[in-house]
Amino acid sequence: MNHIATPRVKINSIGTFLPKEIVKSDDLMAEIDSERQYDIPIDWMRTTMGIEERRMAPSSAKPSDLAIPAAREAIDNCIGLDPQDIDLVIFCGIERDQPEPATAHIIQNALGLNASRAFDMANACFGFIDGMEVATNFIKCGIVRHALVVTGEIPSKVLRAAVRTLKAGVDIKTARNIVGALSVGDAGGAVIISPSDDYELTGFELFNTTSHSSYVNKCIYKQKEDGEYEGHMAMGPLAAAFIRYNHKLIDETLEKLGWDKFDWMLSHQIGKKPFEKISAIGGVGPNHMIKTFDKLGNITSATFPVNFKKLLENRLVQAGDKIGGCFAGSGLAIGQFGYTL
């Protein structure tokens, strides 16, 4: 039986958007009077979690306000591509502008695109990885030519709600479950995914994902009837699960790829200790990872595009390098990928 080889699929271009406002962790902790009220040192988030600051969009901002400039940059950077050849737009942020219509339509309309398929999908912080896998498979099947995968994340809405709650005063146990929400930051990101040229070896080699839904109650946020946000983020159990399940998955991922190790690795980023432990996965150390949590915090589903752009700016990275990914989203979704640069 003859087998038809499916095309390789690559990231053709990338765009990001960061709000201008910078908010320091020490200032947030001082605002909630963390040391007096909750026996949490003012510098705890900066020294223990390693998060010095984050970007915050205006409180009136919508996800598309961050997604559209990121997508526009990706389109502008995609030399030789007619934007009208983009057949698929996937918005994969945690939150949408509104329940209807899909935020992907708002983005497509703003950019003047004419994709035959435009839809939203969400899976917490893991949504962008899912979006890229779906887009990759659409292209491999010949359904679309080029895809725009885009996100705009504004978790500062939850951060602001957590600050209000903590300032008002809660018991210490509740405070320790809420304070993790102060680790987040806002960002937008986008990639254009396309078939690789016949002579190119670059592109996605594998997506390998598992779900562990028993963690469904560890990280939650929702909107109450009065419009206020509420939720909690159990950082300890989530970080431990993120590390543990990625360790369990790595041998299978490398075996399926036929690789001994990664040359570089990108990961979801929630703080210093998980970043250091994840760096041991796939045979890389911290010097062959991209770090953004210190200046941006946890930027949820925008982590991949922001980190991939920074990776490409690293002068040590070369064509042919094997890029690995270790990502997660609350629920719990754990996933890895292999990408040849």
> The CATH topology of the domain at 203-340, please?
Peroxisomal Thiolase, Chain A, domain 1
CATH architecture of the domain at 203-340: 3-Layer(aba) Sandwich
Structural class estimated from helices and strands: alpha/beta
Provide the residue-averaged pLDDT. 93
Account of the protein in words:
The two termini are 32 Å apart. The model has no long low-confidence stretch (mean pLDDT 93). The protein contains twelve helices and 13 strands. It has a domain at 203-340: Thiolase/Chalcone synthase (Peroxisomal Thiolase, Chain A, domain 1, 3-Layer(aba) Sandwich). With 341 residues, it is α/β, with parallel strands linked by helices. It has a five-stranded mixed beta sheet with strand order 1-7-6-4-5, with helices on both faces. Strands 8-13-12-11 form a four-stranded mixed beta sheet, sandwiched between helices. It has helices at residues 25-31, 34-38, 44-47, 63-77, 103-111, 127-140, 156-168, 172-178, 235-257, 272-278, 293-296, 303-312, and strands spanning 9-17, 21-24, 53-56, 86-91, 117-120, 146-153, 187-195, 203-211, 219-223, 229-233, 264-267, 322-329, 333-340.
